[in-house]
Amino acid sequence: MAADALLAVKDLRVEFATRQGTLVAVDGVSLTIAPGEVLGVVGESGAGKSLTGAAVIGLIDPPGRIGAGEVWLGGRRIDNLPPEGLRRVRGREIGAVFQDPLTSLNPLYTIGRQLTETMMTHLKLSSSATRKRALDLLAEVGIPAPKRRFDHYPHQFSGGMRQRVVIALALAANPKLIIADEPTTALDVSIQAQIIALLKRLCREHGTAVMLITHDMGVIAETADRVAVMYAGRIAEVGPVADVIHRPQHPYTQGLMGSIPSIIAEREELAQIEGSMPRLTAIPAGCAFHPRCPHAFDRCRRERPELMAAGRTRAACWLVA
Amino acid sequence: MIKSALNVVTVEPRDEMAGETAAPLVELVDVARHFDVSPPWLNRVLEGKGRAVLKAVDGVSLAIASGETLGLVGESGCGKSTVARLIVGLYRPTRGEIRYAGRRIDVDGARHAARREMQMIFQDPYASLNPRWRVADIVAEPLRAAPADGRPARAAIGERVGSLLEQVGLVAADGAKFPHQFSGGQRQRISIARALAGSPRFLVCDEPTSALDVSVQAQVLNLMRRLQRELGLTLLFISHNLAVVHHIANRVGVMYLGRMVETAPTKALFAEPQHPYTRMLLEAVPDLALTGKPRTAVAGEVPNPLDPPAGCAFHPRCPYANERCRREVPVLKPVRRAAGILGEAACHAVQEKRLGSTVVTQMTMRDPG
Lengths: 321, 369
Hints:
The complex is a heterodimer.
Chain A: E1 7-18, E2 21-33, E3 38-42, H1 49-56, E4 64-73, E5 76-77, H2 83-92, E6 94-97, H3 101-104, H4 111-122, H5 127-140, H6 146-149, H7 159-171, E7 177-181, H8 189-206, E8 209-214, H9 217-223, E9 226-231, E10 234-240, H10 241-246, H11 251-258, H12 298-302, E11 308-310, E12 313-315
Helix pairs in contact in A: 4-5, 5-7, 7-8
Chain B: H1 2-7, E1 24-36, H2 41-47, E2 53-65, E3 69-73, H3 80-88, E4 95-100, E5 103-104, H4 111-115, E6 118-121, H5 135-144, H6 154-167, H7 184-197, E7 202-206, H8 214-231, E8 234-238, H9 242-248, E9 251-256, E10 259-265, H10 266-271, H11 276-284, H12 323-327, E11 333-337, E12 340-345, H13 348-351, H14 360-363
Parallel strand pairs in B: 3-8, 3-9, 6-7, 7-8
Antiparallel strand pairs in B: 1-2, 1-4, 4-5, 9-10, 10-12, 11-12
Helix pairs in contact in B: 5-6, 5-7, 6-7, 7-8
């Protein structure tokens, strides 16, 4: 694991205690993000990508809990901080952008108040400096007429504009890392393009690293530097974005890429992965993908593969061993 | 009645797609659907508020040929789902005519016979299946609802349900289970089996794969393509996902704020988009092949449909808009592409040849922020 990583997640395990026993939703995930880097985390529903993001930011709700593993941010371990310490890290050092901007904003407060409150909590600024910085931020994220909009409530904004406000909030305290969980999923394509361009530009200018969690490979392709593909709670493959997309090594990644319809390529039939992702209650032994894998052999059914160097990526697959 | 249905086979084909010489199976002529969204009477009186009318669909004409898949794309609120609901009769048009096999179906009494030949598949496979019914009953419902003379015998229904389930990639024994025992993709297969039960000729699919994961979406899309080929179905396929429409449709219609702005055979539309809105949409779609390409975003948002701009509804966002666009509503006219005259676009700039056919990258604007 790189020593200069901004974020280092080591052997993370997120589990849920239920009456039927303990369900493991994230199982032994390790990843790093360098300063200023955009790491895409993709996977289908239930792959554990959102929980990985929530674990980093300390937002796993009971009955879920971090069962094992460590989260290091800028050389400091943050997963074992007391709630108050974690609250300070959240917002100050890690910003968050979620899918639905309406639920991330308080409907009873003006957006100006929400912005200034965030800054007052985390930064030592005078109230006039706070207001000025809030207005600057709103202008920076592309809100027209920020002075007038400052006193508006969330419901007075459109979906795209609300997501811009949420991004302004995430950036308010100048964090080093932003966790963006499906930030464009609720938006129309043209607005989605605007938000992606904005997120990319701001992170470049502020040197902010991003963990971009999404199910949309297209968004990842255009935004991320590296990408981690998750399947059934584990990382199936991780590597530079171009390599994972164009030269995938793991059969799951290969199937996933082939199943995405394109507006450019002409395909008679989409590649098809038979079956669906296993439920948490019934994760197969060995490699979790083996029942759906066209290349599975005996070892896959018995022994669980760890990430191994394969081509220019790392894949958890016995084929590349 | 039956005679007239067979007689209207002399409508000109819309474009030069191979095999598209038959009369349209479904035809919409200047169809509009307005919704009254006025505040309550008391508020209008006390607060002096006026009536408000939402023109969800405002003058859409389209024709779907037999055996064709027409894709309908557009962003939320453009009226694509309203068009679907108008066709299957869930809404009545405010204006215009809807014809099925040459006969009007938008008037009372006429809808019934045609309705048996059309079915709808909805987006959410969780909401569209009754959780208290067994799958076999869900799939058999259209058969049992058929009029007495055409209804199959009880034993035949069971057999037919089994073969329908197998046709969509499930097993006959799944009929005894309840919907909650299936995953999202399997439920959408059940919806498809139910839609196919009455042997329809025409399927309306409203975002059928939007709630599914990509690998499951691929399974469902492959299934729908296969079934269409095997059964000779005609499809109206509605989606906000351009890549999905590109994959499944023969012809595509692009809607913006209640109007059709461009229609063309799929290949022509994606190769040479004409209307500035279509160009913008295609630019905005993230695609795997474009790794590292800087993404061009388009300024502005869809305007409030309660108060649409005068003239061309797209003019506030269009870099090519001029005085005429702000005044005059453009109508669909045939356009010339490299491959010949293919498709139609409703744009003054295209019709006046103010913009060439391949200027996509020049016209899109950067994110304003």
